[in-house]
Amino acid sequence: MIEPGGNEQPEAPPAKAQLALGLAQLQRAGGLVTPVITTLLAFAIGGVVVLAAGHDPLATYRAIFDGAGLNWFFPWVTGADRANAALNLQQTLIITTPLILTGLAVAFAFRCGMFNIGGQGQYMVGAIMSVWIGSSFAGMTGWLHILLTVVLAMLAGAAWAGIAGFLKATTGAHEVITTIMLNWIAYWGGSYLFGLGGPLQSDVRKFVPISSDVADGAKLPVFWGDPQLQGLHVGLFIAVAALVVFWVILSRTTLGYQVRAVGYNPEAARYGGISVARNYVVAMAISGTFAGLAGALDILGWQFRLSVGAVQVSQVGFIGIAVALLGRNTAVGTFFAALLFGALYTGTSTRSLDPSVFRPDLAGSLAQIIQGLVVLFVGADVLVLYVWNVRRKLRRGRVTPAPRPATGAGP
Amino acid sequence: MRLIRPLSVVLVLVLALAAAGCGGGGGDKKSATSTQGVGPLRVGLVTDTGQLNDRGFNQLAYQGLLRAEKILGVKGRVLESPSPADYVPNLSTLARQGYDLVVAVGFDQAAAVAKAAAAFPNTRFAIIDVSQGDLQDKPKNVRGLVFREQEAGYLAGYAAALQIKSTPGPHVISTVGGEKQPPVDRYIAGYQAGAKAADPTIRLLNGYSQDWVDQAKCKELALSQIAAGSQVVFAVAGGCGLGVLDAAKEKKVWAVGVDADQGYLGRQVLTSALKKVDQAVFLTIQDVKDGTFVGGADSVFGLDKDGVGLGAFSKISKPSLPRVVAKVRRQIISGVIKNLPTTVS
Amino acid sequence: MTAGAAGAVGAGLRSERAPVYVGAAGIVLGALSFWVTLPPVTARYPAWPIVLGAAAAAAGAFAAWRGARRVGISAITVGVLGAALGILATHSSVSNLVQVFTWSSLLASMFVFATPLTYAAIGGMVSERSGVVNIGLEGMMLMGAFWGIYGAEKTGSWVLGVLIGMLAGGLLAVIHAYFSIHLRADQIVSGMGMNFLAVGITGYFFVQLYHGENVGANVPRIPDLNLHIKDVYFLGPTFGHLNLMIWIGFLVVALSYVVVFKTPVGLRIRSCGEHPRAADTVGINVYAVRYGAVITSGLLAAAGGAYLSVGFVGTFNENMTAGRGFIALAAMIFGNWRPFGAFGAALLFGFSAALAFKMQVYDASLPGIAVLINILPYVLTLIAVAGVIGRSTPPAADGRPYKKQ
């Protein structure tokens, strides 16, 4: 299950420090073992926190697991419990869908060596565009309307991210700063658009700061659960398809090759004739496309409208950062990481978590602590690999080699 | 080959978790069917994204629920909604579990309530701050709980203008709203009208912090209004509004609290414009208990039903205020003062 | 005489540095074109901003033509923008302008908003000067805000409260330092982890310790420094009653400049940030210096957060810092990793935030303007980071883990 184009598992390296250094810095991609160990470690520490709070970690985690509906996969769960699990799992997957895409957005940019913190703004711009297009053209045929909305939302996201890419390419402006600024501009832009008297505020409900509803024809079909009660919509399949597209672009196209080359070493890429500036813009644009798609799927799948409050409270783009990091910027990793964070979200919700097991109002914070730990440990794959390598060396009876002077320039 | 070790560890862990999870189905209290009408009444409350500690409507509604638990003996449950994606699942979970009354807070949930009410026609719903007539398909099992905030605002504005009437110089009062929304604007419109009635020469300032939580923003806005001469600042911004009260304390001017009686926060709080969401929730629960709950209409809470009101006056306010304000209150209830404005120009 | 003067001007214009000075003059003229329409000058004829703006643009064009492209383009931009804003201002009523541009309260407001940014930006600067990127400023600020107010309430002293808050930020910084320096993890990732952790930890303990209630109403607060100059024109209302932490913030800026740029300690820090290998060879303990710098950044960012809670607002809400840490990061980059630059940038952000509140007075005539004005600081940053500052030059080894040989 190692993703092609990602990193292979390391051999027992003589210069293990050099390899780890390289892994930690240059590549930011690949591998499966590390994220799994990372997650377990984070959960273990989270368990210590739960213990310190006077609760049973295993019971808490089991409750979160059930609350996320993941117990639906066990055939021995039947009857009312199974029905409940189904409902929970639908909600988990509804949350997972945009997380996959915002995770892909961050991951794609990372592959080009850029840190796209702007997933939230790009998502929001896509969502705003979706609400606008989706609530206009009421008479349009269903699939055409959906197609139009989704395409325009993706373009909006691409443009929003493209601004940051363009600025980096032409002026060298750091994308961390520009994307953060663009996030806030989208936040306030949305607040303005849907506020009372704003241009996109509802024509029907004139006194609340909410947008018009998406036309019925533009709503995505629901394939599992009650369509009237926020069942699971086909957007999930579109998100999974996006995973495949992500993989194909990066590992099977020239563009992907160039993007990855720039990500490894911009100077070498430039020397090799690749236009670094162009790739910055293109990579950010593609990154924004994924995030904009997430916005479209959420609006057309279950949300159907945006209010100022919804704009301001949304965090999907930010969790996407944690998703991409945990998923090591690969397609498969992003899927499972998104599933994990989606499950953590639904599993810790007040309706799912039994208050006698763990206080629901604390559970949300617990989930965030685990999220933080996951992100932290992911960055420290050096630690994990070090432990991993030392153990293996001890097993094979090899002596840990003495450190050699650094060969070649550092990163 | 190298993967077998870690993968097997993971597999073992997952199986262990599953084994732990399969015993007894997790002891859940969330069985899908539940008997209605047997045992104590069950009432559920679904917050909006402001969640429980918003020091606003969610918290007040919760207090109403707690009071009903204590006095009426109902069993209450609160479901928080950190994101709009939680509205429909929360509402339908409660309905599915056969709750006798499901209360939703805020206009953001209006669409979700309409859907849940349509899917569960035998469950009673109530929604705060939304008129039942505004819901899609006007479901017959929903009752809207709406408030005449402008009446409370009127009294507060009248009191504020009276309090500063004898001070020298131009008289200025101001309001800090959270966001431009009907409940907020009703307060402000009433406040402005009441102040003008007491003192036609009074000057009115208004601003919105665009935030319900960040007290620094509300404090800044209040400070800038005070610098422009405001002598009484009315906070209509939920938790953020506490910053307004703090600004008034710092600059030694008056403040007016909102929604709940905020007089305990200091003597600078002249009074508070009360929106008795807790009372409304309590009364609705009582209706359900008494069998007099009627969906398909609104309960309008104004001064007459003690649904809105004015809090206690500050210890250092003018002693004549309570008497004068009580008179104005009677005039509003009896209709002598009518057609209070509900929108801010 | 005039021929001689013209000759001298001509010679001056042909010199090397002339275009830059002309461009700088253009920027000043552009700013002036807006400023003249505001109180206290309040020129009412649009001719004024137009003329000044045109002059600014001309100066900018000259500068750009002569090679000082960045300064020249900035001058043109500022000239056009200033003229446009100036014309807008002439259409507004004088009373509205006076209400918005009460400079003394505007500036006092500016300091209030800028101070948390200042502390965090200076902290970030120290850390990055030693070579460690610290994106976790937001998280450290948040820790300072929560634990500061908790400490103040529990100990009954604002001094202890602020110190406890700083300690909390420092502890978070230690974790970041360990992961970044010893484990050589990706520093941006580690910083993001800090932010997630801080939100989780403060949220958790806020509920656990306060049970959803508000922080008590009588928390000891950081006092204001009353200068008794209330009646001094302009300076009185602006500076007369600022919070103590704001003044300490000024000191921190000056101190950081002296320490980082004028002392041997600072030299060590900067060498670790520019060329750690060389510093190591000379005998500097790169790890220790970086640890110290990162912990300092945590202490300072947390102090900024503590000012927000213990000094300004008097309470805590979840996620109270609301992105200020990231704006501080922008201020640091905007200021080109120099203390006075970062301070200036923080003041700029503070000013636009203060202005945003004041602009509400126009909301009746232009609905929604109050919301849109909030975008101002972010757009300004974009323009600045992209245009005026251009390719920012961080310390050479910034963000690269160092391995001791």
- Enumerate the strands of the largest sheet of chain A in spatial order, edge to edge or round the barrel: 1-2
Q: Radius of gyration of chain B from the CA trace?
A: 24 Å
- What percentage of amino acids of chain B are in beta strands? 15-25%
Shape of chain B: elongated
What CATH first level of the largest domain in chain B would be assigned? Answer: Alpha Beta
Radius of gyration of chain A: 22 Å
Helix content of chain B: 40-55%
N- to C-terminal distance of chain B: 74 Å
Descriptive keywords:
heterotrimer; A: 411 residues; mainly alpha; ABC transporter involved in vitamin B12 uptake, BtuC; two-stranded antiparallel sheet; 16 helices; 2 strands; 1% strand; B: 345 residues; alpha/beta; Rossmann fold; 2 domains; six-stranded parallel β-sheet; six-stranded mixed β-sheet; 10 helices; 12 strands; 40% helix
Descriptive account of the structure:
- The complex is a heterotrimer of chains A (411), B (345) and C (405).
- Chain A is mainly alpha-helical.
- Helix content of chain A is 67%, strand content 1%.
- Chain A has helices spanning 16-27, 33-52, 57-67, 79-111, 119-135, 142-171, 175-194, 235-252, 254-264, 266-271, 276-303, 308-313, 316-326, 331-347, 360-379, 381-396; strands spanning 222-224, 232-233.
- In chain A, strands 1-2 form a two-stranded antiparallel sheet.
- In chain A, a hairpin with a 7-residue loop joins strand 1 and strand 2 (232-233).
- Chain B is of the alpha/beta class and 345 residues long.
- In chain B, helix 2 runs parallel beside helix 9, helix 5 packs antiparallel against helix 10 and helix 7 (215-227) packs across helix 8.
- Chain B is elongated and about 65 Å long.
- The chains are: A mainly alpha (411), B alpha/beta (345), C mainly alpha (405).
- Chains in contact: A-B, A-C, B-C.
- The interface between A and B is large, with 57 and 51 residues.
Helices and strands in order, then pairings?
The complex is a heterotrimer of chains A (411), B (345) and C (405).
Chain A: H1 16-27, H2 33-52, H3 57-67, H4 79-111, H5 119-135, H6 142-171, H7 175-194, E1 222-224, E2 232-233, H8 235-252, H9 254-264, H10 266-271, H11 276-303, H12 308-313, H13 316-326, H14 331-347, H15 360-379, H16 381-396
Helix pairs in contact in A: 1-16, 2-3, 2-15, 3-14, 4-8, 4-11, 4-13, 4-14, 5-6, 5-7, 5-11, 5-13, 6-7, 6-11, 8-9, 8-11, 8-14, 9-11, 13-14
Chain B: H1 4-22, E1 42-46, H2 57-72, E2 75-79, H3 87-96, E3 101-105, H4 110-119, E4 124-128, E5 142-147, H5 149-164, E6 172-177, H6 182-198, E7 203-208, H7 215-227, E8 232-236, H8 242-251, E9 254-259, E10 269-275, H9 277-290, E11 297-301, E12 308-310, H10 321-334
Chain C: H1 2-13, H2 18-35, H3 47-65, H4 69-91, H5 94-100, H6 103-129, H7 137-155, H8 158-182, H9 187-210, H10 235-239, H11 244-262, H12 264-274, H13 276-282, H14 286-313, H15 324-334, H16 339-358, H17 369-372, H18 376-388
Helix pairs in contact in C: 2-3, 2-4, 3-4, 6-11, 6-14, 6-15, 6-16, 7-8, 7-9, 7-14, 7-15, 8-9, 8-14, 11-12, 12-13, 15-16, 16-18
